[in-house]
Amino acid sequence: MKLKHLSTAMILATLPATGVFAAALDRSGQSMSAFLQPGNYFEAGISILDPDVAGKEDGGSATRRNIGDMADDYYFPSAALKLQLNDKFSFGLLYDQPFGSDAEYSGNNAFVSNPGSDTVLSPAAIDGIVTKKAIQLLEAGGIPVNEQTLTGAKGQILASKPFKDLTGALAVANGYLGTGGTKVEVDTQNLSFVFGYQPTQNFNFYAGPVLQTVKGNVSLRGQAYSLYNGYDASIKETTGVGWLAGAAYQIPEIALKASLTYRSEIDHKTNINEDLSLLNFPGLTSVLAGLDVPASKLQAINSEGKTTITTPQSVNLDFQTGIMANTVAFANVRWVNWKDFSIQPYKFGKVSEAIGGLVGRPNGFDLVSYADDQWSVNAGVGRKLTDKWAGNVSVGWDSGAGNPVTTLGPTEGYWNVGLGLQYSPTPQTFLAGGVKYFWLGDAKAQTGAQAGTDQYVADFSDNNAIAYGLKLGYKF
């Protein structure tokens, strides 16, 4: 069973739409399969995702309203050129869009501003502040803290002039909160320059630099985000450099091929254009001072500085082997280090440090972070049906990156099934198409201030997505 007899099925195993709805911001899956094709090879593909992610307010939300579909459709292209320079050396250019996000909340829920009812601090948050002050008052007077004394102390604080002045100022501040709905759009592009060395027919060692760009926009709106209701961040396109390295082993006689690829973290240092509508409230400093925010932290909330965004390192393990005439089995395992990933825009971070003590986070918190690393597995079988037609079936699983998870991407992994079909009008060319259906994992959604706890503000369940892919290939 020679490798050339299975080349059609092998290429089919690399159809687009393999990642498209993975954990966190992961999209393309960063495949190396094009570079590992025999001879000279070119391909171009496009993947389209149509997700449906809806839920309801839950957890710490004061209401229990439904949340309509917040996940936008999106598409992303990919392309690859691989040149076999001689028997020992090869070179490849791989283009993909590895990470991204597209989401927007609408309707009447905690992620859409409602100027008539939104408040800088929720009633629960104010009660927590009053309770804290009451305990401090009792302890300062040497009075035992129990239900009766605590109730009396809280009443004393609520009736005091300083607290009435504070609530009055907060009522005015409510008018400076945002309008519209929460939305996020993040796009990345990767261009990998891969140099390969093949000491024998069986081994292939490869490495090279990776050029990556990142850009995006984030808007936080609605009661769920408290005083961040009205926060906007615009990330201008910025460029960073990383690297990849890997090794592959093949036995052409049985169509066996295995590869292991590592991709490094990539740092992006940028000035993010940030705006928080509440900072336009003239009395904000005095309000925060009334909430016992230290003066040093008050001075920092209007400062400017750079933000570092580090996209995560990853490892891909790919395997395929012939299992009978004209048939291959294939599998991919991917690990992405999302647990160490976070985004804290500069001004967002300074505000979070200033008000973090009010929500039990004195050191501040991130805009986005994840609790777990991502693991995903895709496996299937590809078969050459005729000289011109081939097909495949596959199943996939993704672990997600933790639960609860950010409100900007409220799913926990998935299961999927996929079908693919390929037509080869000539031995050198092919057109392949694929479709995958995703059962998205249920998740509880939490804001950045809640990350690292079991608190959440919404519950998303029974969601799904469908992905389509198209790829053109040419061997020369």
Automatic annotation (TrEMBL):
Subcellular location: Cell outer membrane
Location (main, coarse): membrane
UniProt KW keywords: Cell outer membrane, Membrane, Signal, Transmembrane, Transmembrane beta strand
Residues in the signal sequence: 1-22
Keyword Transmembrane (UniProt): yes
Keyword Electron transport set for record: no
Topological type in the membrane: Multi-pass membrane protein
Gene Ontology cellular-component annotations: cell outer membrane
Gene3D superfamilies, sorted: Outer membrane protein transport protein (OMPP1/FadL/TodX) (2.40.160.60)
Any Pfam family the entry gives: Toluene_X
SUPFAM superfamilies: Porins
Homology family: Belongs to the OmpP1/FadL family.
Protein name (database record): Long-chain fatty acid transport protein
